[in-house]
Design brief:
The protein is α/β, with parallel strands linked by helices. It has a single domain, classed as Vaccinia Virus protein VP39 (Rossmann fold, 3-Layer(aba) Sandwich), CATH 3.40.50.150. The protein contains six helices and eleven strands. The strands form three sheets. It has a seven-stranded mixed β-sheet with strand order 5-4-3-6-8-9-10, covered by helices on one side.
């Protein structure tokens, strides 16, 4: 029998702290959220390893990111407890559960019905009541629930859909990993009035977000 509480502590100490994750709230939350609930049953004993997990075995596409690169992306967003967050590509809801413990409200979006249903079930089982799951195309975001203080893109993309910048509040931040050849670079974008300024921060790796091709792109 795996001691999941011990596995979470080891994940925090050996993967997050050693990757320069210094946000105490984030470290505490990731030490509490039961990551094993959000992976397929056959992967539960391995849920806290330094690696990604396919969420739909036998199908191409979506995966739960490894703990450290996910935490680095969240830390880059500089979350406040009053923030409204759009969690883009939430999968089975792990990222949403973490974000909901750090912010006021989370709107989580996925374009795959089976994943969205699992995310709803997981959040309900954990008693998380400040997050909602929406099934919709990822490139569209959630305009009906905007503006957001933070948008987190939960996977590597070739470009950020331009529609997302329009859903940021003034002073809002968007973080995304943008593919650069064989690598990906974490970018932080901050909105001021109608302008958005971005800067590259660090190289990282997350599974590709996937989804439909984006016609209206913001290219970097």
């Amino acid at each position: 029998m795996v001691d999941f509480a011990h596995a979470r502590k080891a994940m925090v100490d050996n993967q997050l702290r050693t990757s320069n994750i210094t946000d105490r709230r984030l470290l505490a939350v990731m030490g509490q959220v039961p990551r094993e609930r959000f992976v397929p049953a056959e992967r539960q004993t391995l849920a806290h390893i330094d690696g990604a997990h396919l969420l739909q075995p036998g199908r191409s596409g979506r995966a739960l990111p490894a703990p450290a690169p996910f935490a680095k992306l969240v830390q880059l967003a500089g979350l406040q407890h009053t923030d409204r967050i759009l969690d883009l590509g939430c999968g089975t809801g792990y990222s949403t559960a973490v974000l909901a413990a750090l912010a006021a409200h989370v709107v989580a979006l996925d374009d795959q019905a089976d994943l969205a249903a699992l995310a709803r079930d997981n959040l309900q089982a954990l008693g998380i009541d400040n997050a909602m799951i929406i099934e919709a195309p990822l490139a569209e975001g959630a305009p009906g629930h905007a503006p957001f203080d933070v948008i987190i893109v939960e996977g590597v993309v070739d470009a950020v859909p331009a529609a997302l910048f329009g859903q940021l509040a003034d002073g809002g931040r968007l973080v995304a990993l943008i593919r650069r050849g064989a690598t990906a670079v974490a970018n932080l974008f901050v909105k001021s009035g109608k302008d958005v300024a971005g800067r590259a921060e660090f190289n990282a790796s997350l599974p590709p977000l996937g989804g439909p091709a984006v016609e209206d792109e913001f290219i970097f």
